[in-house]
Each structure stands twice: as C-alpha cells, then as structure tokens.
Amino acid sequence: MLLVTSCSQNPKPVFNEYRTVFRIGDQPEWAATDLNDQHWKKRIALVPDGQVFWSRTKIDILKAPEALKPYGFRLEVYGEYEVFWDGVLIGKNGNPGQEADLPPEGKLWTTFIIPTDLTNTGEHVMAIRLSNYYYPDHIGNYGLKIDDYDDLLTDRLIQNSYMHVFAGAFLIAAIYFLFLFLGNKKEYPALIFSISCFLFFGLTMTHFVRTTVPIHYSLHVVRLEVITGLMFGISFSIPLYFSMQFPYPKWKLFLGIYTAILLFIFSIEHHLFDYTILNMAFSLLVFSLGIAVFGVYKKAKGAFLVFFTLLLCIFMRYSVSFNLSLFTGFSLILLNMLYLLSLRIKEQRLAYENSLVQSTRLRLELLKKNIQPHFLMNTLTSLIDWIEETPKKGVLFIEALAKEFDLLNQIENQTLISITQEIALCRTHLEIMEYRKEVNYSWEEEGIDPGQKVPPGILHTLLENGITHSLPLDDNSIKFKLVYESNSDYKRYTFLTFAAAVRQEANTKKEGTGLKYIKARLTESYHEQWELTSEPVNHGWKNTIKIYS
Amino acid sequence: MNILIVEDESRIANRIQRMTRAILGDALQSLTHINKLQEALGFIENNSLDLVLLDLNLNGDSGFDLLTKAVSESFHTIIISAYKNQAITAFEYGVLDFVPKPFNRNRLEQAFNRIVTKEKMVTNTTKFLAIKKRQKLQLIPIQDVLYIKGAGTYTELFLTDGRKELHDKSLEKLEQLLSHAFERVHKSYLVKIAEIKKISVASGSKYIAELKNGARIPIGRTKYKDLKAKWL
C-alpha cells in the first residue's frame, strides 16, 4: 500500500527550480518577470514584527501542459502571502503584512492553479509577497512542486485514503488488544502491543492530517511536537515489548539506560524534529536488534523472525525515503509483535489445556487411591478373614472402611481441603491399616491450625508411604506425628514417622508415584511457591512441606 | 513339605498359614513367614524348600526380582497377589499357580493340589526358564529349548544354539510347567514335540526320536504309544 502510494506520483518532474532569493521591503514591481534580482539575498535569518518581504524563484518549465489540463503548484511556506506568477497575482494565502492585526488565516500547504498561457516551456518567475509574524526566524520556501493541477490535488487524497485504512487497521488492533488486556489484567504484552498500535495509529494520522485539516503555519510546531512525542512513545514501547517477550538478564537496568538515552536524544536539538525522530528510530532499531540477537541466542520462539525484520528495517532506512522506511518499518515490526503475541496466546492455550488434563488426572489419582488393587484386594482379603474369624471386629473394620470412602467422596473434586478433613482421612486410614497389618499405629499432631487448607490427599499419601516403607518398632508400634509451624514467610508441615525403617534402596532409586502426586498437587495450588523434602532420620522418616506466602 | 510364605500384610499372612496348616495337615514339615524382600532372598538361599507362596508387592517393592530368583530354584512357586493383571507375566516366568486376592480356602487348596497330585498345567504358558549363571539370574526363552535331560535333582537344558545350561528344578517339576509344549519321552528326557523330525526303531526294538538338529533321544517303552499319538 505504501509502495503504491509513493510510486503513484509523476516520476519525471516537469520543472526545474532555481535558488530562491529574498528581499525585505514591499514594492509591487518586484513581481515582474524581468526584474534584476541579482542583489537580493540568498538567505535572511530574521524578519521581525511581521514586516512584509518578497521572495523570487526562477523556474524552468520543461514541458508545457496538455490542452485544458492546467498546471498547478503546491507550496509549503511559513507565513501569509500572495503569489505572483510571471508578474500576475494568481493566489492569496492569508493577509501578508496584517498578521498582527488580523486573526491567523490560510494554511501551511496550499495548491494554486497556474493560468495555461503562463506555462509555456521556458523560464518563469514565481514571486511571493509575504510576512512571517509567528516564526520570524523561519524564512524560506520549504517545498515547491509543479505538476498537473488535478493530480496535485488528488494524489495526496488518494495517499491519504490508503493511509487512513492503514491507520484504521492499527486502531482496531489497539482496541482489540486493549479489551484482551482488560479481560486478563496480567497480560502486559497485550497492553503494550495495544499501546504501540495506538501510538502508531496516532503517528500515521498526525503525519497525514495536513491534507484533510488545514493547519495555519503558526500551529505547525504543535503537529511536529505531537509527532515527536508519539515517536518517543513508540521508541520506548517497542523495545519494552521485546524485552518482555525475550527476557534477558537485568532487562530493567538496560531498559532504564535505553530510556535515558532516548530522553537525551529527545531533549537535545529538540527543534530539529526530523533529526530527533531519525535518531530515536535508529536507537529503537539498534536496541531491539540487540534484544532479538539475545533471543536468537537463547533460541526463543519467533526471535529469528524479529531479528530478520529489524535487519530489513535498517536496510530500508538507508535505501528508501525516510517516511517510507518509517511507516513500512513500523508496520513490519508491529506485525512481528502481533505474531509473537499469537505464539504466546497459543502457548497459553496449550498450557491451559494441559492444566485441565492435569487436574483431571490428579482427581482420578486421588479417587484411585482406594480402588487400586493393592489397597482394595488386600483390604478385602483381611476383611474376609476378620469376618470369618471375629465377625464383630469385622463389622468395625467395615465401618472404618466406609468412613474412609465417605471422606474421599467429600474431597474428591476439590483442589484444597481443610486440614481437619485431611487429618480425619489419615486417622481412618490408620484404623483400616491396623486391621490389615495388626500393628499398633498411633497419630499425634502439634500446632495444627484448623483454618488452614491443603491439597487433598497429600498427607494421606505421606502416611501411605510411611506405612508401606516402615516396619514396626520392637513393641509392634509405629507412630506418625504432624507438626505445623508458620511465620510471615512460610507455613510448614512436618510429617514424622517413628518406626524401624525398611531398607530404602528402591525408594532412592526413583521417585515413587506418591511423591509425584504430592508435587503435582502442590504445583497445582501454589505454583512454584513450595518445597518438599523427604529424608530418613534416626527415628524413621521425615517429610516437610513448606508453602511460601 | 517345607513352605515359605512371603507376605507383608500380617493378617493375610496369618490367614495363609492357618489355611496351609489345615489343608496339608501332617504333610507339612515347616512353615515360615517372612515380610521383607531381602530376608526372603537370604532364606531361600540357605534353606531347602518345597514351595514358596509369594506376594508380588512387598513394602512398595516389586516382587519380580524375588520371583525371578524363586523360579530359578528347585522348588515350585505360587503367587498370591492383589494384581490379577500380573498373572500372565507370572505364568510366563514359570510359576505353578497364581492365586488372586481375595482368596478362600478352596482356591488355596486347589493350588496345593497341583503340587500334591503333580497335576500337569495344560493351560499355562511358561515362556522363560530362569537359570543361575555366574551368580546372576538369566531368563532362557522356552522357544530356545530343544529338550531337557534329567541329571539327578538338576536338569540340563539343551538349547537351539548348541549350548547346554543347568536348571535347579527336577525333570518332574519342569514337566509340570512345560507340559503344553514338551513331552516326557523317557524317564530322563523331556522333548519339545515340535522339534521331533522322526521316530525310528533301532536294534533291540529300542525307539529313538530324532530331532531336527540331528540329536537322538531314547524313547521309553511305555511312552512310545502316547508320544506317537501326540506327535502324529
């Protein structure tokens, strides 16, 4: 789109422009074609108090216009003025010489039609009678273009229409990702992307506003300030975005230094807007490139594409016009950012799906505890034996079993349960195991806070491990003890087994499914904010679960 | 009979002991219960046994190490386990029976009967014979075994690659485990039926089974008819 608009203008100019000369003063005959202006000044630094002065520019028309298709010219001049072409007044833009008394009138960019009979091939003179009340030190013609009058008017409109569509796309993206962020306030990359898109939308609109909204020359600096400000925002937000996507060590420090450099560039030679914008764009590219290189080094997803795009932007900067490279470059970078965001959204979706699967798996694992053959069949076999031998005890055994099943049913679909429920589960389990193993199990607790919550089945799993891997002491007893401590940093459960330990070879070789279950449950509820230790001690075994607050 | 029970659930171990005593009565000479894997391995090493009743899950350890060790020994092994899905693997290792938990007296009795009556296992599918070689246990696939020769209380396994390995089980016990593919053609020989190329009569009306690899195995006079019927 940008390429189309930039190429749509006539490639071959129909005129040749000579050096403009100036003279302070006001004489009607200065408009004449054959005036000797050799003594006029090539440059005037200052015309104070809105005095009238004249400028004269010799122009060669290289090619006469076609019949009924007059030429026009477009001017960019600071001041209010009247334009003479070959001595004939052909246009007026404001009230030269009366600026102090009259309100600002006219606009910075104007297009005038040139009478057809004055555009024959050959030498012509454009004389301007003007005053510059608001920026008396900005004396000069900043732009002149002569072409088919119709084309001069429509070219910019066509370019503008394309650029508005272009800017609109980024506005939509900005709004969409803003909503996405509002939906999930942790999604900072989406917010930064939204801001970047919005800034870029603003930059595009401000840059191309000159065609649609007439701007008096006295207000032009406002437009340039806005553009530079937007540019500063973009130059900050894009590297910030890349820093979040490809995190590198001490990124906040580096970003801080970068911001300081940006502020420095922003403040020095601030009145040279193009210079400032150029330098900010350059620092943006260099810093982003550095981040992308680190990303490539770390093999981050999408980093290579970003690296390649930034190189392309730098290459473009030196091969096409500044404006074209600016808008094309930014749009490519923003597309890259969008791509990274989509990669991230995809990763999040996969992670979310994974977590759903994981929760279901953990729930099943908890349910499985009491129907897995080792527990169920051994329990049933013992139960049959009790019923056959001592029916009354058998009934108590069944009641204990019913209680454990009931407790499991209550907690089965929860991710956190009350510690009292978990302890009740452990006590019932011990009751059952006493019937099976004929060992005197005892349970002690210390400092338990009934208000605390834990993931279901984690202490129960530790208890199971303790029962499985321990042999009773000489008095045929095994004691379990749960100790709870908390301070401002963490909460800690210590689970102790007092028993004659079984050889732990098989245990140390590989992590049992029990510990895996506990770890998965802790991760589910506390992410990384927990610690689990499991080690033999001289009285048996010691487990600790530390949950950081 | 000398029996070892390896089981870490004491109520169940007591049940097995009680039932074993009731079923075997005077035939029982000794009955030992052990609830630890290492201890059981040591006991097997140092005592002469006729039968081991083995639980495959001991204190969270897999009993398959113990199983491999047990089946390489001269005694028979019966598994009593909560995991029915381990039955196929256990039979492949060459156990005599697999009693799933929960079990009753009848089921246990049925398992003991296999020993007492030397019942042949028609349905089982022993796939390996575990042998002890240089202090290590090695599983020999049944498909590699051509024939087995009794050598006192031991047996010699003759393999397809020409090797000969020793096994601690007697020919009778192996016959019980391998009856689905092997035939007792002689009081000292157990031959894989599929390996017999032809049956011939030698001088002195001695019957000889010639195997595909050329080995010649004598056939017992009383076994000839049975074998011929099966082989044809």
Task: Note the main attributes of this structure.
heterodimer, A: 549 residues, alpha+beta, Heat Shock Protein 90, 3 domains, five-stranded mixed β-sheet, 14 helices, 17 strands, 21% strand, B: 232 residues, alpha/beta, Rossmann fold, OB fold (Dihydrolipoamide Acetyltransferase, E2P), 2 domains, five-stranded parallel β-sheet, five-stranded antiparallel β-sheet, elongated, phosphoprotein (chain B)
What is the fold's blueprint, element by element?
The complex is a heterodimer of chains A (549) and B (232).
Chain A: H1 2-7, E1 15-24, E2 52-61, E3 71-77, E4 80-85, E5 88-93, E6 109-113, E7 122-131, E8 141-148, H2 149-183, H3 188-212, H4 220-245, H5 251-267, H6 273-297, H7 303-317, H8 322-368, H9 373-389, H10 391-411, E9 417-418, H11 419-437, E10 440-446, E11 453-454, H12 458-469, E12 470-471, E13 477-486, E14 490-498, E15 500-501, H13 505-509, H14 513-526, E16 530-537, E17 540-548
Parallel strand pairs in A: 10-13
Antiparallel strand pairs in A: 1-2, 2-7, 3-6, 3-8, 4-5, 4-7, 9-11, 12-15, 13-14, 14-17, 16-17
Chain B: E1 2-6, H1 10-24, E2 30-34, H2 37-46, E3 51-54, E4 57-58, E5 61-62, H3 64-71, E6 76-81, H4 87-93, E7 97-100, H5 105-116, E8 128-133, E9 136-141, E10 145-151, E11 154-159, E12 164-167, H6 171-178, E13 182-186, E14 189-192, E15 196-202, E16 206-211, E17 216-219, H7 224-231
Parallel strand pairs in B: 1-2, 1-3, 3-6, 6-7
Antiparallel strand pairs in B: 4-5, 8-9, 10-11, 10-14, 11-12, 13-14, 15-16, 16-17
Helix pairs in contact in B: 1-5
